[in-house]
Amino acid sequence: METKLPTPDGAAVDGTVLDGAALVARIRQWGRELGFDAVGVGGVDLADAEPGLVAWLEAGFHGDMDYMVRHGMKRARAAELLPGSVRVISVRMGYWPDAAPAMDVLGDPERAYVSRYALGRDYHKLVRNRLQKLADRISAEVPHQYRVFTDSAPILEVEHASRKGLGWRGKHTLLLDRTAGSWFFLGEILTDLPLPVDAPVASHCGRCTACIDACPTGAIVAPYRLDARRCISYLTIELHGAIPEELRPLLGNRIYGCDDCQLVCPWNRFAQLGREPDFAPRQGLDDARLAELFAWTAAEFSERTAGSPIHRIGHARWLRNIAVALGNGPATPAARAALQARADDEDAVVREHVAWALARLAAAAG
Questions:
Q1: CB atoms within 10 A of CB 225
Q2: Are 155 and 81 in contact (CB under 8 A)?
Q3: Is 80 helix (H, G, I), strand (E, B) or coil?
Q4: 233 is in an annotated binding site
Q5: 182 known ligand binder
Q6: Does the predicted TM-score (pTM) go above 0.85?
């Protein structure tokens, strides 16, 4: 039977009169049942964000991520991704894991630091699948045209989420919420349903510059402005080829991503453990020794990172990153032996970083 519900604005889709507020309330409930901590709704227009995006790209802050230039202003024009769309449903899913204390790992140069988001299962598939279920559940109630995303298409996720009431953009450029901090993933559903929109929330960063001050490489060049070329997440994940030599000592023992700007944020004191079991640490990567990880063969890397976001960087970049971390640590027999074992690695970039690390350890030992 066709649903006929009263609506304040008289919006109708395919002859179905929508009670927008009631439908949004149901969407929020369905979202919670699927593991999302918050759901917000807003428009698709981000025209006023385009000048900032243009300036960021013109400054070259995207580094070697050429796809960002190719996508251009499409990131701010969601309607180009789904013609006819009028709303973006933004969702938030917490991931903070029950893991070895991050600061303890960062404080031990013989251990490997992996960004907390990457310790468990790859969020792309999990969040996207949940979004698909949410979109399908909405369709069962009211048929609609839609498309789902989670860091999987050119769309300004933080900008949309901040305008849908899910938080505010922090000075480190990530989304912040007073009750959840920043340890969460974002996702979106583009839809042609004319749903009522949520109001944005005010910023609560005030005069705090903790994230800017804590960045190991000075990548946050100004409040709300990140130079990806200096960001450790970019250097260890997105960058192909050699890591700039002047930045290598600043990476410390961070081998995949970096959380420093989040770890010092006062709002993350209120973050709760994520509810999703699939984000729990795997393969002991929350508390692993650098030398042990450096010994992984290509087959072991592939097997042990299967289903993890780490898998996509490949074995060579994994070794490159760990070589730098070993070079930044103490000149122990284990570190030297691990590096010497790969001094003749088949990959030229790995060989170059191993040589750098061995030279650094030799210099430190006097």
A1: 17
A2: yes
A3: helix
A4: yes
A5: no
A6: yes
Estimate to the nearest angstrom the gap between the alpha carbon of 271 and the chain centroid: 16
Instruction: List the single range of 9-18, 61-70, 108-117, 209-218 with lowest mean pLDDT.
Output: 9-18
Element holding 94 (H helix, E strand) = strand 87-94
Mean pLDDT for the stretch of residues 243-257: 98
* 162 assigned ligand-binding residue: no
Q: Which of 279, 282, 290, 228 is nearest to 255 (CA)?
A: 290
Q: Catalytic residue at 151?
A: yes
Structure tokens at 168: 């505010």
Dihedral of the alpha carbons of 70, 72, 74, 76, in degrees to the nearest 10: 150
258 is in an annotated binding site: yes
Place of tokens 């650094």: 360
Q: Rounded to the nearest 5°, which phi and psi values hold at 88? A: -120, 125
A 10 A CB-CB count for 336 gives: 17
Longest dimension (CA), the chain: 82
Q: Decide: 265 and 172 in contact? Cβ < 8 Å.
A: yes
Per the CB < 8 A criterion, the answer to whether 24 and 41 are in contact is: yes
Give backbone dihedrals phi and psi of 66, rounded to 5 degrees, phi first. -60, -25
Catalytic residue of the set 45, 108, 151, 345? 151
Instruction: Identify the helix (H) or strand (E) that includes residue 82.
Output: none
Residues recorded for the chain: 366
Q: How far is CA 196 from CA 22, 40, 149, in A?
A: 10, 10, 21
- What region, left, alpha or beta, does residue 309 occupy, with left being phi > 0 and alpha being psi -120 to 50 degrees? alpha
Environment class of 280 (CB within 10 Å of its CB; exposed 0-12, middle 13-18, buried 19+): middle
239 is in an annotated binding site: no
Cβ proximity of 127 and 150 under 8 Å: yes
DSSP codes joined into one string, 104-135: HHHT-TTB-EE-GGGSSS-HHHHHHHHHHHHH
Q: What is the pLDDT of residues 123-156, one digit of tens each?
A: 999 999 999 999 999 999 999 999 999 987 778 9
* Tokens matching residue 335: 């570190």
Q: Give the 3-state secondary structure of residue 177.
A: strand
Q: H or E segment at 328?
A: none
For residues 248 and 361, what is the distance between their CA atoms, to the nearest angstrom?
13
CA distance 339 to 345: 10
